[in-house]
Design a protein that fits this description.
about 110 residues, alpha+beta, two-stranded antiparallel sheet, about 55% helix, rod-shaped
């Protein structure tokens, strides 16, 4: 009888160890798969860098018109983009004079 109990205990231990190994293997595969997925998403996409241009304001041009020429999806929205331009140029309002130069951020 004792041999049967020992055999059952040994058999149960082997099954538990195998189940734990399978679970460990699944966790490792999931982690590797996640890393590969992240790499695949970023692969081929070049990171754009923010640049700055000095733009001369033409007669009758508004800050919003200039902003529309340089705005890209890297910026949150057009309103925040115009505010960023105003901050870069120490502007308190959106009024600009023709002939003046305005620093404009953009991505390339």
């Amino acid at each position: 009888m004792k041999n049967i109990n020992r055999d059952n205990l040994k058999s149960n231990s082997i099954i538990i160890i195998m189940i734990l190994q399978i679970l460990f293997f699944i966790v490792c595969l999931t982690a590797i798969s996640s890393q590969i997925s992240r790499y695949a998403q970023s692969w081929g996409k070049e990171k754009k860098s923010e640049r700055f241009a000095s733009v001369k304001v033409c007669s009758g041009e508004t800050l919003w018109e200039i902003s529309k020429r340089y705005y890209t999806d890297e910026y949150k929205n057009m309103n925040s983009y115009v505010k960023k331009i105003m901050q870069l140029n120490n502007m308190t309002d959106e009024e600009i004079n023709s002939g003046a130069y305005v620093i404009i951020p953009y991505y390339d």
